[in-house]
Design a protein that fits this description.
Shape: elongated
Radius of gyration: 39 Å
Membrane topology: Single-pass type II membrane protein
Number of helices: 12
Organism: Lithospermum erythrorhizon (Purple gromwell)
Order of helices and strands: HHEEHHEHEHEEHEHHHEHEEEH
Pfam families: Branch (PF02485)
Strand order of the largest sheet: 4-3-5-7
Main location: membrane
Number of strands: 11
Protein name: Transferase
Length: about 425
Amino acid sequence: MKQPISLLCDESTIKNQSQIHLVASPLKFFDTQFQCRKLIALIFTFAFGLTIGTLLCFQLKSFSFNLQFNNGGINNVSPPLSIFSRSNMRFKVASPHPTPSSLTFPSITDDPDSLEEFLKPPKAMHNMSEEELLWRASMTPKIQELPYKSVPKIAFMFLTRGPVLLASFWEKFFKGHEGLYSIYIHSSPTNKSFYPEDSVFHDRRIPSKTVEWGKVSMIEAERRLLANALLDFSNQHFVLLSEACIPLFNFSTIYSYLTNTNKNFVELYDRPGPVGRGRYNQNMHPTIKLEQWRKGSQWFAINRELALEVVSDKTYFPVFQKHCLGGHGCYADEHYLPTLVNIKFGGKNSNRGLTWVDWSKGGPHPTGFMRANVTPKLLHKMRGGHKCVYNGKETKHCFMFARKFMPPALGKLLRIAPKIMQFNS
């Protein structure tokens, strides 16, 4: 049986060795004793280090197990992946080697892949190109039933040259109805108008391009407005307005009028003569036939189904882009949407618009109302002086909006109209 290592260097062993080597010098004796003590020290150091290392190993394994178990299971911990931010269309990449202390486990409200985050509409001003915008806006789910609670909103889309001239009047109209509407403004790129932070129009301008009256660029601007509004899944109805438009009723009445019908409000009619069928271009055949050609006002109120059709139209809109350029009396804003609706949505349209306009003076532009023109009599006439059909029944409430009110009329409108229209009631 082998003796322990420690016994190899006891005093008796050293003594025996010294007797055998009588001729050895005293220095050799002391050198041997030093080497044995050094060996003993190394052995103790190794044993101590091995013990400490073993204890640390068990501690680290225990810590790793507890961290994984407390967060939903042993195999559920994974490094965070790249996060796609829908608000600015950029990629944000987390650290490729996160330490245990930097790992976070977000709740569903912070999860970029949650339904809530997916449904969040981007800001009105964004960096998408027009092709990217139209492509994204054209998406629609085949499953119609929503997997979440939603309150339908109305998108009020203002097509303007400069600022919304009657903004303070619209402020009174919208007040108290937050969450039921969205606002979008398409203005000239050179327009530098500013809306204060407490205004409903603040930060509601969309990326815009120059628009020429009577040209196909008017339709391009309308498609741009619709596409931006479609990015908000809550927007179910879309109203096109100018900077000279006003509402004729309070918000609750207009909201009810639009959300309680399955009809679109696009004015269209077949008109013989030079300002109707005479504007048809034979080069549009066979995609658009003469008997399908229609005319109407550009100011509309449509539902989401038709809005999606407009922004994704690759059949009829290119024909207008090529053959209805404003020359020879072919004004795209008066013919594109009426013709499209006549071809594809005839049974779902009321064939009338919701914006009251006075064309009695003739000419290419309607009557503009100044301060002296604004009277209770005029407003009552606009609100109820007509007959039409709504949801299969005859009604006198045919128009929800009116134009063309000029800036000098604003003061008088603010004084007499809110009471007539029962704002905030």
